[in-house]
Amino acid sequence: MSEKNYSYWLKQSEQLAFARQAYINGQYCDALSGETMEVISPRDGKVLTSIASCDEADIDLAVKAARGAFEAGAWSNQSPKQRKKVLLKFAQLIEQHSDELAVTESLDMGMTISDSSTMNLPGSVECVSWYAELVDKLYDEIAPTHPNSVTRIHRVPLGVVAAIVPWNYPLMIACWKLAPALAAGNSVVLKPSEQSSLTALRIAALATEAGIPDGVFNVVPGYGHTAGKALGLHMDVDALAFTGSTRVGGLYMQYAGQSNLKRVSLECGGKTPNIVLADAPDLDKAADGIVIGAFSNQGQICNAGSRLIVESSIKDALMVKVLERVASLRQGDPLDPETEIGPLVDASHLNNVAQYIDLGKEQGARLVTGGTKAEPFPDKLTGNCYLEPTIFTEVSAEMAIAKEEIFGPVLSVITVDDLDQAIEVANSTVYGLGAAIWTSNLLKMEKAAKAIQAGVIWVNSHDHGDISSPVGGFKQSGFGRDKSAHAFDKYTEFKAVWINLV
Ligand code: NAD
User: Fold this and answer.
1) Which domains are present in the chain?
2) How large is the average pLDDT for residues 270-298?
3) What is the pTM of this model?
């Protein structure tokens, strides 16, 4: 087996043929308007290709195809065992195309190839197989009613599910939604982010190859305010499964309210605290978790540990370790497997992040590293999207960089006196997605786990996960859960059948 080194991935990148059209009713097609949008790689600022830019008319076609397929029953009425077989084949095909998909993702939105090939792709494959394997092991229920009757409680699919996803882990987050939705028997219309549609478009054909009937899985690329809004308002969509910013999540709730009260689930933004107490068992390990947590995928992770809340007595010792580790991070070409930090998704997002850095300075935080654009390849890769990992100390809980989601490589360090203050600061944002605490004291760990409002609490680790463990938010980080068997709740409804026996 050849080693997958830098030249291997560069060669892969030269051999790509991108899927550029929408996928509706089992076929690739242009947008009805003929409109396209350019795909620019943040790696080097070059145009990769252009893809269909769909709007309301294309969404309507896709929803009609999805509804037609649902009513026809070739998928929705199929036995769970048969759906499992097809979804396992789908997972296998994604796996067979892993290298192509991993490089596509890196070029499209800048994820490092090491993340893309060892996390994003295996995570996507595992997700599809996991729901395939689960679906023929779920039993319905019998309610404990009077013996004169039998009441069966069935889980039934909803019909047409719209999945709207962001650009930061495009394929994996799409799989978190499409896998349970399809396994449950729904038809799906997936709208990828306009900033990262290529892998979603590619896997659409793999779904057909695996045996998913035409119309059951559709992918419609387009802008949020056109294609996304049209899905949100469509009268024949039964559920909206959204991942993205809190602002846009709110819009989807409005769309549902203005149309047919379709069910909404939201996975939104975060401002994850990493709390390090003086009795943390291993400061080196904590420093590692902090740096990886804050800067992986260039900080563009909903659960990025963007706030370090540290007990004052160990702050200096911890910061020495954190800064050493940051200095050793390799920033560069996302296609080089040695690269740990690649480019941000695009130049406009970099400017948003840079504005937060300016705000941090203006509001009195102390910039201790980074803060400027990085030029890892001034002569080769000039995408204008590389930013140095940035750390502010002397941050107070009221500052914008402590409260708002930056979604970039910026870590805000807040010093506290004790656990109670740490919990107060941890809960002082509108978000509640994840939180980590580093301590060797069981009682403190339990107290924090109970008091912090977040969907996931990590103890002596950060952002660990497994497909069997649910993710999702409290407060304005959203509601509903991705991953785990609980995801089925978003894509099924209970139906009770009461049979009188007398
Ligand atoms: P975004 O909200 O801008 O976009 C998400 C999706 O919504 C995209 O498909 C986009 O096209 C669509 N959209 C945008 N404007 C719209 C509009 N006016 N009407 C309808 N649809 C619209 O988010 P993003 O920038 O793509 O992603 C970053 C955000 O996603 C961050 O806030 C991050 O925390 C969040 N996120 C959350 C999770 C989670 O599991 N909670 C995971 C990943 C990312």
Assistant:
1) 7-268+479-496 (3.40.605.10), 273-467 (3.40.309.10)
2) 98
3) 0.97
